């Protein structure tokens, strides 16, 4: 199968306008004849549901949380980028586009990224109109701050809770449409399969998490906005419920999975401190605006940070990257922290941490200013670690945070299954091999508010469809398959808990497919995962019944999918014989230990097709063509 | 007028009723206390205050009816609130602990309210609905407070009134929407002051009368 | 410094909304003081699972204090004894070896128990649906800087907008009232110029919705602001009251 990204012709800056004109439209009176299913209520799903309903479509929206307001977008702290150029510091749509492509190490589609930069300004306008209390200057105009990978201040923020505020904005628009009867909301439902009829996505099977009943829903198109798969690592900054199941089920039904090995390890997280730990906590990247990252110059230095004099400290990011300093992109910052720790210069009890020091900033601006900017983050840090970051430097270490890979989509955000659209983190399209800070919120909302409302209309208007109800045999077959799997999980009654398997899987992924990868390691890991998966299906213990509120069963299904999906990540990582962005294969690095791309052979999207249980997935290549930017070795020096 | 019923029947509407009637009672108590203080001027001063008051004739009746109306509203609304609030948590917590918001006054509002109601009825029966044709108000009062039981009842009642007012006063402002970071500390201060003044001001009267009359 | 403690837990177990529940006793041993409260329950649940018993059901998701999923009443205090903290951010270092810890669900008629500590807070969504939004469709907005909003106003609005919808205010209120939750949204949108056109309708509709849901009445006990993990102040309730009076007596909205 030839992958067709359906990128419109014409100059980059005109592609989106031209495409919007060329797409077929559904006339306003006809929109109410179409039903659309949206799975997930984060920034992408929430905004898509609301906007599609505003246009007049009948929307059915699903989330596994008890309320659409709790999707994990809510935890994003730092901000959202837009090319407003309010600070007058040289920003433009083109610069945002260029920074994002470069930040992604030239593994994203030019056309998608440019569109993202174009609509970024509309997002800010819309969010302000929704009543989102963005930070403001004294004069009442919007404030901006800097983020990694950019030399302009283009990040809009609402204290350290930008994701929360943007999500609550989308949620409020969604609430309005629920009240208007245009969206039917189904909380506490987990999507367990997508239903394909005549080759088109026409519905889903969900489990009602309270009653345990399996429910089927039919529609004219299905939109997945189900987030990323970072929890394959067990420990990540994702919420406990984040999972790959919806995307992976779609993959098994024919949607290709693109670049699964592109995972982002975020540099500023609170270090791991015990085996019981259930998740990692991110400290916003915005902290790197004022915090200075350092380690002792001498390996094995166990003195307290205050006892280490200035000239015995190594501010390694400032030293190595004088022009970006502490604001280098996330992958670079993370890898450098790992490198320092590997050299024995790590700090803290586990020696797996580096300092993030605000002493200079507090001296320069005063404690009050720092408190105003980062108060809630400092408080969060203090709460978790019982350390006071106003007095002693924070300790940070990289942690899995975001996954750039996802279901393959074309320019219209449609997967390889007609009628199955994928938005936000769940798709692969905009961030290449590394996402810049404050871009995830931008992409989620761009997809939901300003892209899908157009492209789904183009699909619906241009695709002949027959009437399908849930009585169709395809729904029955899908339900039976889901049922069979649930019964199997409950019948094993082995000796290890679901979390126990998950934790072991995470360990394998982190050790072999984390910040640095080797071919040998990736192969070892495949064997380990296969064995673990086999053991899971013989020895997992899932208590309770299928027909009740059963959180162990929910987790078991997710972990079962992670155990398969993890292998796909390893396969993808092994196939990509280069280093780029978040994918760092030790065999491919520059003399300065930077990721060394191979544009000759790997300037492409790797899209994987499911070919059957325990069979090798089929590889498909979408070449990436760069007509507008010149591929360079990224340099943040 | 449907809107008015809806407004006053809503949870904030009920707060409004409680606040307005409550503040009405507090103003009344201020006047009542001022009048009662004439007792310290002696028998004649007190009797002449009573005579002046009654000389107002229909105004007194109007005020009394107004107070009665306020009482009906305050008590009825309070009873509804008490019942609804009880219903709102059918299964109670096994362990109860305050996070630091509650005060003795706030936590006991319905109960102190009930006691105050009982006291007011008792008080009216003793001093208001009595035949005053052949006696003076001072005489009635001094005879009543000759009994230590009466004195004790009145003192306890006044402590309870003070408790009720300690929450009721500032709470009324909060209910009316008058909460401002600049003024609220002052209102809270006044709330405590008013309740102490009521407690001591009214509470010392029976003691004074029983000792010195 | 990390150390371990042993606790006796008394946890509310209830199979469903219509069956009787009771406190069951469990032992949580070798609990690291660096654990969060939910991680401690994870440990207990792992053991219960291996022992063939039903693990304790509880809602949780982000575990960084922002999603609002988690919450239980710990020794009589919603989200436990620490101020401004959600249950997932409550660390075991705040407990001592040998403590007995009683864990109960949010208790309110409006929050039926689903199972054990998990309750149904769907009515909070209903309240937002009644008017907790600004009616603006995607695509039509003017430039974001067209309306300057004084920093102080934006900050106040943000204070209110910080609400995570966890329901601790209801759990803490002696009357099981949701007034702090309602006020946070009404106040945020009433403060901002974008919210003014619909302010009257919003205040009335959201209050009516909350009243219908079966919550108790606010009697200014201030337990909500004392227990709110985001420390939202009751000044927002006062603003809600003002907005409601303005809407009821000063607008044509019925």
Topology readout:
The complex is a heterotrimer of chains A (637), B (213) and C (254).
Chain A: H1 15-22, H2 28-31, E1 35-39, H3 43-55, E2 58-62, E3 80-81, H4 93-103, H5 110-129, E4 145-146, E5 153-156, H6 162-179, E6 183-186, E7 189-197, E8 200-208, E9 214-218, E10 221-224, H7 245-252, E11 257-258, E12 263-269, E13 292-296, E14 313-314, H8 316-320, H9 330-342, E15 354-357, H10 359-365, H11 367-385, E16 394-403, E17 406-407, E18 420-422, H12 440-462, H13 473-492, E19 496-497, H14 498-513, H15 519-539, E20 540-541, H16 551-575, H17 599-602, E21 604-609, E22 618-623
Parallel strand pairs in A: 1-2, 1-10, 2-6, 10-18, 19-20
Antiparallel strand pairs in A: 3-5, 4-5, 7-8, 8-9, 11-17, 11-21, 12-16, 13-14, 13-15, 15-16, 21-22
Helix pairs in contact in A: 3-6, 3-12, 4-5, 5-12, 10-11, 14-15, 14-16, 15-16
Chain B: H1 2-9, H2 11-36, H3 43-55, H4 58-87, H5 104-107, H6 109-127, H7 137-144, H8 148-175, H9 184-212
Chain C: E1 4-13, E2 22-32, H1 37-50, E3 73-74, E4 77-78, E5 100-104, E6 113-115, E7 118-119, H2 122-129, H3 151-161, H4 168-172, H5 179-191, H6 199-212, H7 223-227, H8 235-250
Parallel strand pairs in C: 1-5
Antiparallel strand pairs in C: 1-2, 3-4, 3-5, 6-7
Helix pairs in contact in C: 2-6, 3-5, 5-6, 5-8, 6-8
